[in-house]
Amino acid sequence: MSGIGSAPAPSLWRSFRLQARIIAALMIREGNAKYGHENLGFFWIMIEPLSLAAMVALMWYATNHSHTEAVGLVLFVLTGYCPLTLWRHVTGRSARVIRQRSALLFHANIKPFDVLIAVFCLETIGIFAAFVCAYVPLVVFGVIDPPRDTLLLIGGWLFLAWFSIGIGLILAALTEIFETVEKFIPPLLYITLPLTGVFSMIDWLPQKAQNILVYSPVATSVEMFRAGAFPEDIVTYYDPAFLTIVCSILTAIGIPLVVYAQKYITHN
C-alpha cells in the first residue's frame, strides 16, 4: 500500500506539457520585452527582416532590369536575407542571455535551457513568419511562383535553426564562463558572412569555393531552403545526413555547457 500523502511521480507527458507551457510563457514575455505593447508590437518581428529585402528589390526595379530578372531577384533576396537574419539573430543574441534574465531562474520550474530555447524559438518562428507573410502575397499577385517543395523548404529552415541554436547554446554558455568571448561574436559573424551562402548559389561559384561551402552547415541549409522555393532546374547542394550529424554534435556539446555555466550565474 502506498504511503499516506505520497504524490505520484509526474509522467513524462505531463513534464513535457509543463515545460512547453513554461517556454511558451517565456516566449510571450520575451516578445513583450523586445517589441513592447505599443505601435506594431509583435508585428514588428515580421516587418523588421523584410525592410532590407524590399529596399533591394525596389532598387533593382528602379534600375531598369527586366521583369524576369527582377522577379528572380525578389525571390533570391527573400530566400537569402531571412535565413541570414535567423543566423545572425540567434547567434548574436546568445551573448550573456542567461545572465540578463537571471531573475527568472528564481522560479523553481525555469531552467537556463528554457530561457535560451524561448529566446531562440521566438527568433526562429518570428522570422519564418516574416518570410511567409512576404511570400504569400507575392505568390497571390503572381510576382513569384509557389514553392516547388514546401517540405524541403521547411526542412532547410529547421536545419538552419537547429544549427544556429546549437552554436547559440555554446556561445551562451561560453559568454557566461568567459566574459571576453562576447567581444569576439560580432566580428566573427562578419568574417563568416561569405560562408553563409546567402549571396550566391554554391553552383555559381568557382570550384575551389564550392569545395569549401559544401561543408558549411549554414550554406547547405540555405541551399536546401532555396531548393524548396526555386525551380527544379536550379542546382543545389545539401546533405541532410551531414547536417543532422553536425547539429547533433553541437547540441550534445551545448546542453552540458549550459548546465555547467549555470554556476557562474548563481555565484555572481
TrEMBL record:
Cellular location(s): Cell membrane
Spans through the membrane: 42-63, 70-87, 115-144, 151-175, 187-205, 241-261
One GO term (biological process): polysaccharide transport
Pfam families assigned: ABC2_membrane (PF01061)
Key word Iron present: no
Transport keyword on record: yes
Domain of life: Bacteria
Stretch forming the signal peptide: none
Protein name: Sugar ABC transporter permease
GO cellular component: ATP-binding cassette (ABC) transporter complex
Family: Belongs to the ABC-2 integral membrane protein family.
Topological type in the membrane: Multi-pass membrane protein
InterPro entries found in the cross-reference section: ABC2_TM, ABC_2_transport
GO molecular function: ABC-type transporter activity
PANTHER family noted in UniProt: CAPSULE POLYSACCHARIDE EXPORT INNER-MEMBRANE PROTEIN CTRC (PTHR30413:SF10), INNER MEMBRANE TRANSPORT PERMEASE (PTHR30413)
Keywords: Cell membrane, Membrane, Polysaccharide transport, Sugar transport, Transmembrane, Transmembrane helix, Transport
Record-annotated ABC-2 type transporter transmembrane domain positions: 24-229
